[in-house]
Amino acid sequence: MALDFNIFVVAFGDENFYLDRDITKIKQGKREVFQLDADNGLSDIELVALCRQYSELPRTIIVDNAQKLKGQKVLQEFIENRNASDHSLILVGIIRGEKLPEVWSLAASKGKGFERKKFKPWDTAKYINFIKIEATRLRVSIEKDAAEFLFQCVGIDLYRLENETRKLAIFVGQAGTIKKEHIALITSPTPKAEPFQVAEQVMSKNLKKALQLFSVLHRNMGEDSIIPVVRALMNQVEKTLVIRCYQDKGVSEGDIAGLIGMKEWPYKNVAAPIARKHTLNALISHMQKLCKLDADVKSAARSKRTLVELTMVSITQ
Amino acid sequence: MEGISFLRRFVDGHLTSPLILIGPEGVGKRISVLKAVQEAFCNGTREQNCPCSSCYTITRNNHPDVVVLTADEKDISVDAIRGLISEAKSYPASARMRCFIIDGADHFTVPAANAFLKTLEEPPACSKFFLLAENANRVLPTILSRCGRVRYKTLPETFILSIIQQYEKDSVKALVYSRLGEGSAGNAVHYWGSGKLALRDQVLKALMLALDKDTPALFSIIDSVEQDLALFLKFLGQVIHDFLVVRIASAKVINMDCFDNIKKLESKRSIREWAHLAKRIKNLQNLYSISRINLSFHIKTIFIDSFR
Fold first, then answer.
1. So what's the pLDDT on residue B147?
2. Record: contact B294-A259, CB cut-off 8 A
3. Does A49 touch chain B (CB under 8 A)?
4. CATH number of B196-306: 3.90.930.60, 3.40.50.10490, 1.20.1630.10, 1.20.272.10?
5. What is the reported pTM?
6. pLDDT tier for residue A2 given thresholds of 50, 70 and 90
7. How far is CA A143 from CA A124, A147, A166, in A?
8. What's the distance, CA A97 to chain centroid?
9. If pLDDT is split at 50, 70 and 90, which confidence band does A37 have?
10. What is the Cβ-side half-sphere exposure of residue A304, based on CA atoms within 13 angstroms?
11. Cα–Cα distance, A54 to A175 (Å, whole number)
């Protein structure tokens, strides 16, 4: 970021990795740096007051989460009156999101002395390029298929991609080449599992698959996976109960699909067979078990994972 | 008035330890504290509409030395408490001391409560703390032991009715709103202001659907009141209460405006079944007060299980 020639810098987009890296870069300069976070209720009046304070050293003020800044009138006035040749203060707005707020858009559109950086969502080629750049930065090289393999293993998390590349660079040593087998040796792959898949397998009475998926999810997300899984189980049981009620009343398949807002094909092939595996009384009993589980996982109970697994076993019986 | 003069003695410095005011929502905890502070800080006549700058700013929540910290939907965080502690160390701007009102002492996170202990133990000389809580059981014992306790009871029905009658011309509806408030004037006025009888009607509709075993329609009604589920549960408890008393003490029915409907629905199940449902609702309310459970799912389960 060419800080020395700009008095306003607006960086925005969805890629937190680059936004954070920009903040780190700015902090490394020779200027006096203040970092503020608009997430803590910062208002434009407070920001402008800080910008106008006298200081002997040239200063850089970074406003993180600038999209959450309260008010904009005072800041807008400040931006409009700012002299582009005055480099005693550089104001950096970091906007974490796709939409650029009006006041920062004004700063970004002023022309000379104002810089705007946008990070767009990436395609696969860009991620692979990122891995290669990281490898070069760490003074190692990486084979093309190895970079692709690493991307397949880790996914789109740039923080993890950077850390895994660093790990591999240490493993192969300076000026070494990262190969596919190195990745297979030391990188833990991230297989995907979603809470709704776990719930679907439980309701299909496929216990083995459900436990496997839950295990993957738990490894990826840790204890944070418990509540989404319980929530998904609740939704699935509720949906199945409604379908079962309609089935018992003799409503036609096409009508049921319409009533529950599903397309006919997924209803016929997924939802309806699941509902046929459970009786109404069994579903009510599942609801009671899930109520107990919900209360347990949101309390200080120990081994919540086991509690979820026990309920899954009980539903699939 | 006695309560306010007691609180004023505290503001004036006759009592030193912080106070915790415990009582249900809407019984006047915050109003009485603000009134006591207003009387203590007043530079004028100390009457209802005193024009002095101090009274003027307090009534508009604008006084620099009266700080109110409220627990919103979430808990009171450690950051909010640290901000308050650092503010408590500063000197008052215009009054002789600073008053801090923390509305939601039962919503402190554990780190927030622990961060606050030292300040409660030895409050700065120029600062007074009022902690307001609805549920004493949810306040950490270490906080309770450092504060003088003042308990607030629920308000009498006649008093709440007299307030509601100032706004609601229909006497039956005024009575229903005052009873729905369950001793809380704040709640009764809030229900009246936001027309919560519509939500109560949804409760009755849900009961009818449950009795008819129309599960999909029942679930969609519960989903439609997603934002007001806690109140939906409270009203459900009150309707079941009406089912239990309608035969033996009909004057005590809360939902007087739909008396016939209550009677009709009540006859569809035995008293024993209604009593069992009332117990389950009470247990669910207790559980929800201590844990952020998925209330919608729990209510659906109660309905579907009780009327199967």
1. 87
2. no
3. no
4. 1.20.272.10
5. 0.66
6. very low
7. 16, 6, 15
8. 12
9. confident
10. 20
11. 49
In this model, does residue A22 exceed pLDDT 80? no
The tokens describing B209, both together, are: 């659907």
Overall average pLDDT of the A80-88 stretch? 78
What class is the B2-151 domain?
alpha beta
Q: Which of B215, B287, B293 sits opposite A241 (nearest CB)?
A: B215
Look over chain B and give the mean of its residue pLDDT values, rounded to a whole number.
87
Domain ranges for chain B: 2-151, 196-306
- Per the CB < 8 A criterion, the answer to whether A39 and A68 are in contact is yes
A83 phi, psi to nearest 5 deg: -85, 125
Q: Which of B292, B300, B308 sits opposite A238 (nearest CB)?
A: B300
Each residue's pLDDT tens digit, B155-183: 888 889 998 998 888 888 999 999 988 88
Distance (Å) of CA B43 to CA A51, B40, B95:
39, 9, 10
Gap from A191 CA to chain B (nearest CA, Å): 29
Distance of CA A71 to the CA centre of its chain: 28
ipTM: 0.75
Question: How far apart (Å, rounded) are the C-alpha atoms in residues A233 and A297?
Answer: 13
Q: Which two tokens stand for residue B301?
A: 């389960």
Task: Quickly tell me which residue has 């509540």 as its tokens.
Answer: A227
How is residue B24 annotated by DSSP?
Answer: -
Q: Which of A113-127, A236-250, B110-124, B127-141 has the lowest mean pLDDT?
A: A113-127
Mean pLDDT of A265-269: 85
Structural domains for chain A: 3-119 (3.40.50.300), 130-186 (1.10.8.60), 195-316 (1.20.272.10)
The DSSP-derived string for A25-84 is HHHTSSSEEEEEEGGG--BHHHHHHHHHS--SS-EEEEEETGGG-B--HHHHHHHHH--T
| Cα-to-chain-centroid distance, residue A250 | 44
Chain A 221-250, CB below 8 Å of chain B: which residues?
Answer: 230-231, 234, 238, 241-242, 245-246
pLDDT for the residue numbered A153: 81
